[in-house]
Amino acid sequence: MSSDNPIEIVGLRKEYGGFVAVDNLNLSVKKNSFTGFLGPNGAGKSTTLKILTHLINASSGEAYINGIDVTKDPKAALTNVGTVVETPEFYPYLTPRETLRYVGQIIGMNTESIKSETDRILEKVKMLEWEDKKLGTFSKGMRQRIAIGQALMNGPSVIILDEPTSGLDPRGQAEMREIMKNLRNDSNNLTVIMSSHVLHEVSDLCDRIALINHGKMIIQDDMSVIEKSSGKRRVTIKVESTPSPLMTHMVEQLDNVVSAERYGNDIEAVVEGDISACVKFFKDISSLNIGAYGVSEEDNLETTYLKLIKESG
């Protein structure tokens, strides 16, 4: 296995009776990258991560972490790995400090290291204010922060996260994204793979993308490459009054516009080309007499994601 890829999955397959959840999957996660693991519900993301963390066994294939096959030697492969997979469970009568101390004792840390790491991690996951409160009184978002803290306790080189913001309210999601962003920015030699359904979250955090559907790999590459792969941008035009068919037709006739349709009180256009084509489109819209008062571009990852999923069947 390549030393540049702390996670390597080769020909991975998982069957449940006659159903194939993961189908000959190959995945490489580059060292020091933050990789977004994407796909629709039932695509095989959680199954893959559960195999990678040895929560379930593969039907066939190989899954390596730091060069060690998880399917053959899970204890050695997961020694330097932090994980948050499925809903985290805690002893409700323990505090965050007690919980991290307990985790440190389980993994064999000495007393001094446990104290210093606990202080550092509680600050990193923004839980110092509640360090001596019982976990049974915490919200899901606060428990999720402690789960991230547990994953960091052994100073891992690899972190595996399965939808870490799932089920959180908007404030909880924003707080969790901030923690993960700080983790990415502050840590050296840390490789993260994170499954998620929230595309703007992936755009904000990740530098690489791996997209699967029906258990098969569709594409894996740098974020910048994947966002440009469709060559198209979806743009929303806000107009003063309900758009008429003539307005929509005028937009559709502009240079580089592939299509234009009315959605409620807006016009949505698909613009083909690079950023200069989009700039020209914005200028052309301002010259049309359609009462446009706002133009915004949607997340280009979403456009590419939907295109690739549709093409993959």
Account of the 3D structure:
There is one protein chain. The chain is of the alpha/beta class and 313 residues long. The protein has helices at 45-52, 74-77, 96-106, 111-124, 140-152, 170-186, 199-205, 223-229, 245-252, 275-287, 300-311, and strands at 7-16, 19-29, 34-38, 60-65, 68-69, 81-84, 158-162, 191-195, 208-213, 216-222, 232-239, 257-263, 266-272, 292-297. It has a 6-stranded mixed β-sheet, sandwiched between helices. It has a 4-stranded antiparallel β-sheet with strand order 2-1-4-5. Strands 12-13-11-14 form a 4-stranded antiparallel β-sheet, with helices on both faces. Strand 9 (208-213) and strand 10 (216-222) form a beta hairpin. The longest helix has 17 residues, at 170-186. The chain is globular. The mean pLDDT is 90.
What are its keywords?
4-stranded antiparallel beta sheet, 6-stranded mixed beta sheet, 14 strands, alpha/beta
Which helices and strands occur, and which strands form pairs?
Blueprint: E1 7-16, E2 19-29, E3 34-38, H1 45-52, E4 60-65, E5 68-69, H2 74-77, E6 81-84, H3 96-106, H4 111-124, H5 140-152, E7 158-162, H6 170-186, E8 191-195, H7 199-205, E9 208-213, E10 216-222, H8 223-229, E11 232-239, H9 245-252, E12 257-263, E13 266-272, H10 275-287, E14 292-297, H11 300-311
Parallel strand pairs: 3-8, 3-9, 6-7, 7-8
Antiparallel strand pairs: 1-2, 1-4, 4-5, 9-10, 11-13, 11-14, 12-13
